[in-house]
């Protein structure tokens, strides 16, 4: 019997209601089944299978190399774990910026083969026709504006976006276009808090911020960062809730020492 008969799944309409009620939306990334089980049980509203898997899972410097097949593999693992959370997967670089037909096919493959509930795409007016086609086919789409890591070589750095009036005006225009195209939410990454507040007020759909202040309708962090597994990455917006890197280091050192000293396994740990 499906768990969903007892535990209500978070849907696009539920997160819209959250915005209307003023209940903030919590989102964390997730790339594997075991972690996703823990996050789902802990009550996170949305699990994002981010293309940041390229960085934190695979060790690439940027998000560009991860493939659609890679993303489907991660997304299917997370989708199998999520009982209550809504699961969103990033479409990777190169799969949705070209012909509408190609973008549509990539979105359909992600939905069919992974079992996630929605997809996320970086960009605004440039990809609006592709977003419309995907939304019209029944696939919920989340937008992503501000710092868009798939365009890192265009921007050249990971600095704060839309600090200047012209870029802020373009971001607002993009946000309205995404809403108009039927996106159910939009991620705002590394933009001034005041601008994120204005956009959140302007839009009917929820905004989910990362490095975008507390006036957004929700927040997202990379789970490896907030648990302190990631070691080098410490931007100002990140709050580290655990130092898991240190905890794991201690545990592994103890294990190695126990093996060396023949203290593991003991009598009760063998047959
Ligand atoms: N581990 C991880 N966490 C993330 O939040 C994340 C990824 N990877 N990969 C994909 C994108 C890239 N993101 C980023 C990348 C860099 C900064 C950042 O603030 N970097 C520098 C500052 C650079 C600058 O100011 O020019 C820092 O302080 O670490 C923020 C978000 C967010 N996403
Ligand atoms: C940082 C979030 C928003 C993301 O897109 C990712 O993890 O890939
Ligand atoms: Mg991403």
Automatic annotation (TrEMBL):
SUPFAM superfamilies: Phosphoenolpyruvate/pyruvate domain. Its EC number is 2.1.2.11. The active site is at residue 189. GO terms for cellular component: cytoplasm. Mg(2+) binds at residues 51, 90, 122. Binds 1 Mg(2+) ion per subunit. Signal peptide: none annotated. Gene3D superfamilies: Phosphoenolpyruvate-binding domains. It is an enzyme of class 2 (transferase). It is found in: Cytoplasm. The keyword Transmembrane does not apply. Coiled coil: none annotated. It catalyses: (6R)-5,10-methylene-5,6,7,8-tetrahydrofolate + 3-methyl-2-oxobutanoate + H2O = 2-dehydropantoate + (6S)-5,6,7,8-tetrahydrofolate. InterPro entries: Pantoate_hydroxy_MeTrfase, Pyrv/PenolPyrv_kinase-like_dom, Pyrv_kinase-like_dom_sf. Pathway: Cofactor biosynthesis; (R)-pantothenate biosynthesis; (R)-pantoate from 3-methyl-2-oxobutanoate: step 1/2. Keywords: Cytoplasm, Magnesium, Metal-binding, Pantothenate biosynthesis, Transferase. Its cofactor is Mg(2+). GO terms for molecular function: 3-methyl-2-oxobutanoate hydroxymethyltransferase activity; magnesium ion binding. Catalyzes the reversible reaction in which hydroxymethyl group from 5,10-methylenetetrahydrofolate is transferred onto alpha-ketoisovalerate to form ketopantoate. Homodecamer; pentamer of dimers. Belongs to the PanB family. PANTHER family: 3-METHYL-2-OXOBUTANOATE HYDROXYMETHYLTRANSFERASE. This is 3-methyl-2-oxobutanoate hydroxymethyltransferase. The gene is panB.
């Amino acid at each position: 019997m499906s768990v969903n008969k007892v535990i209500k799944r978070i849907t696009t309409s539920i997160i819209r209601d959250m915005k209307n009620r003023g209940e903030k939306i919590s989102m964390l990334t997730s790339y594997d089944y075991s972690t996703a089980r823990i996050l789902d049980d802990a009550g996170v509203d949305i699990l994002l299978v981010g293309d940041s898997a390229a960085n934190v899972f695979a060790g690439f410097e940027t998000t560009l190399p991860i493939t659609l097949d890679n993303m489907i593999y991660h997304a299917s693992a997370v989708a199998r774990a999520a009982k209550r959370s809504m699961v969103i997967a990033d479409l990777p670089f190169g799969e949705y910026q070209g012909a509408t037909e190609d973008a549509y096919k990539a979105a359909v493959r992600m939905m069919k083969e992974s079992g996630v509930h929605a997809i996320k795409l970086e960009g605004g007016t440039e990809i609006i026709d592709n977003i419309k086609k995907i939304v019209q086919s029944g696939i919920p789409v989340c937008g992503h504006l501000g710092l868009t890591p798939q365009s890192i070589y265009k921007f050249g750095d990971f600095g704060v976006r839309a600090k200047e009036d012209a870029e802020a005006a373009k971001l607002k225009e993009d946000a309205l276009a995404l809403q108009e195209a039927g996106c159910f939410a939009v991620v705002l990454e590394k933009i001034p808090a005041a601008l994120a507040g204005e956009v959140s007020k302007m839009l009917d759909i929820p905004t989910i911020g990362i490095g975008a202040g507390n006036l957004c309708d929700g927040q997202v962090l990379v789970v490896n960062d907030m648990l302190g597994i990631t070691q080098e990455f410490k931007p100002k917006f990140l709050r580290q809730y655990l130092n898991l890197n240190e905890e794991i280091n201690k545990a592994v050192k103890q294990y190695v020492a126990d093996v060396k000293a023949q203290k593991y396994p003991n009598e009760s740990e063998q047959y």
